[in-house]
Write a structure and sequence with these properties.
By secondary structure, this protein is of the alpha+beta class. It has 2 domains: about 130 residues, Diaminopimelate Epimerase, Chain A, domain 1 (Roll); about 120 residues, Diaminopimelate Epimerase, Chain A, domain 1. Helix content is about 20%, strand content about 40%. It has 6 helices and 18 strands. It has an 18-stranded mixed sheet that branches.
Length: about 260
């Protein structure tokens, strides 16, 4: 069996920035264990697989794997999949719809920008979180904690997010996926970083699923529906955001094609 593999930098306007994803189109599903093994071998934060859908509302079914586990939603790999379909596989509609474990995901191409409709996951403020969280994240002071899928930690300034120095060994023991965020001090409305050592990703460069939670949080805090966000990882990423409704958010980003390969099994 031979499979095509595409590697794409998502939420990026130039090569070697944003978040790299491995995209593997399939004609039909292969085994879960094999998909997980391929994701481990690729050793990127996400390897994404999609097949033609039998759902009348969708074009393709989509699934995402980190090197250690399947996840229920991944933004940058979905963006990369749409990019591959539109620019390399000559998908001939203006929008593509993926059916996923998190529902239907619609991506529309507008020149070199791809806009994704994702679920709006509004987090709620919590007070129950792991002890020693400040030291674990390497930050001075936590001013708010929230949860939907992930634990969201708010600090006062952009610089604290940028300079945080997490203890990934301690974080992995908690089993938490943690989003560190703050109001932007410069051109961004808000900034973030995303840590998930419990699923094999110490720090994800740019994380769409995190923004399904961050957009409703910051939309309410800032009283704005349209925002510009930055993820302050080493590679960096830029996300154009909109709170569309109580049920949906929009994320816009660009992609850069890196390479195509073939897998022989």
């Amino acid at each position: 069996m031979k499979l095509d593999l595409y590697q794409v930098d998502a939420f990026a306007s130039k090569l070697f920035t944003g978040n790299p994803a491995a995209v593997i189109p399939l004609e039909k599903w292969i085994g879960d264990e094999l998909m997980q093994t391929l994701a481990m071998e690729n050793n990127l934060s996400e390897t994404v697989f999609f097949v033609p859908s039998e759902n009348s509302e969708a074009d393709y079914d989509i699934r995402w794997f980190t090197p250690e586990a399947e996840v229920n939603l991944c933004g940058h790999a979905t963006l990369a999949s749409a990019f591959v379909l539109f620019t390399l596989l000559k998908f001939n509609k203006t929008s593509v719809v993926f059916s996923s474990k998190s529902g239907l995901l619609k991506i529309t191409r507008k020149d070199d920008l791809f806009e994704m409709e994702f679920p709006s996951w509004k987090p709620e403020r919590i007070t129950d979180y792991p002890q020693g969280l400040e030291a674990m994240l390497g930050v001075k002071e936590i001013i708010g904690t929230y949860r939907y899928r992930d634990l969201i930690v708010e600090v006062a300034h952009e610089e604290e997010v940028k300079c945080a120095n997490p203890d990934f060994t301690a974080m992995k023991k908690t089993g938490e996926k943690i989003i560190l965020t703050a109001k932007g001090d410069n051109d961004a409305d808000f900034v973030s970083r995303f840590f998930a050592p419990s699923i094999g990703v110490n720090e994800d460069p740019v994380t769409g699923s995190a923004h399904s939670q961050l957009i409703p949080l910051w939309s309410e805090k800032l009283s704005k529906s349209r925002m510009f966000a930055k993820q302050l990882s080493k590679r960096g990423g830029e996300i154009f955001c909109e709170q569309v409704s109580n049920e949906k958010v929009m994320m816009g980003g660009k992609c850069v094609f890196y390479m195509k390969g073939e897998i022989f099994l």
